[in-house]
Amino acid sequence: MSREFLSILPIILVFVLYFLNVPIVFCLFASTLFYFFVIDKGTSPVLVFQKFITSTQNFSLLAIPFFIMAGSIMNYSGISEKLMDFADVLTGHLKGGLGHVNVVLSLLMGGVSGSANADAAMQSKMLVPEMVKKGYSNAFSSAITAASSAVTPVIPPGINLIIYGIIASVSVNKMFIAGYIPGLLMAGSMMVVVAIIANKRDYQPTREKRATAYEILIQAFKSFWALLFPFGIIASIRIGMVTPSEAGAVAILYSTVVGFFIYKRLKPSDFINIFKETIYGTGSVVLIIVAANVFGYYLSWEQIPQKLTTLLLGITTNKYIMLMICNIILLVLGMFIEGGAAMVITAPLLVPLVTQLGVDPLHFGLVVIVNIMVGGITPPFGSMMFTVCGITRCSIEEFIKEVRPFILAILVVLILITYVPAIVLFLPNLIG
Fold this sequence. Notes:
It is globular and about 70 Å long. The longest helix has 32 residues, at 270-301. The protein is 77% helix and 0% strand. Helix 5 (79-91) packs antiparallel against helix 13 and helix 20 runs antiparallel to helix 22. It is built from 23 helices and no strands. InterPro entries: DctM, TRAP_DctM. It comes from Anaerococcus lactolyticus ATCC 51172.
């Protein structure tokens, strides 16, 4: 075998193992160990295990278990229901009211759970049965639930914002701030789709008339403690009171106090399930990050990013065409590989390429995240698609028919943020 083929053999091995249903963590570890034990025998394998250990010594990683636990506590404490009530007051008077509520709730849940799959599972249990009772088809209810959950990781403190910041060495604080406008655009585009479909199918509103300013104010007061969380977290990070990791710890304390003493829904026995969900969620996410860092060691050793950069720059040096190529790569990859895994594999390869062409890595981060969110609701391996359909018992075929207009809406937003970087960079530049 030629040296060139052997240098990329671990990348091929990752995909082969993944399509054999091996978890992505073990795909990355196995491929890296194969390279250093079999191909490059001149390098001490001890260096690989040292990289494994040092990858865990990142203070920013603490934000992940903290925010996962805070989101879990908030679900048990009734904060999610308070957010749903507030969303209903805002949009329940519109045709297709529950569809709009579904989208707005995902927008609000972005500041609570930060996880698309957690949001999709929660709304599948909470909202979809209610939508079906009100005359919405199960397929449409499932499609809007999965599609709207794609907004959740884009709104801070989305877990994917943290992961990309760590992988690409971009400020997590700036990633948080940059996520707001793209998230709002995604939600707005899906509400337009809901309005069109609701008018066509005559889906009725949940409220007889638009809520008055007084009614909105009363509900905002009732939901005050739930609404305060996302804005309070970002404000405290911005003014320098806490780091993103410390903000996660504050979020746990805040949600626990609100759950026990204000909403009085949280019970000590709930913490058994909360700790289980936190350990499971943290283990899967952090292991992927560590595995990606170890795999990145092999990529750097073989100078794969530099070789890919040279190859693609041989095709074009126009950054707009290059962004289009990156979008196509990410969209296709997202159809076959789970979003988080796709990001940790591609970010180390593509970020050096686009930054060399003058693309801000902060801007590119939101492009990557929106791309992989599209992959989460598309066949054959969309994680939110399977999460929702597994709970609602909707067939994949019916789901695909209903989710297509929502995918189109997100793609329009993706094109906008790809070629109008000011949409992403406006708030970070404004706040400094």
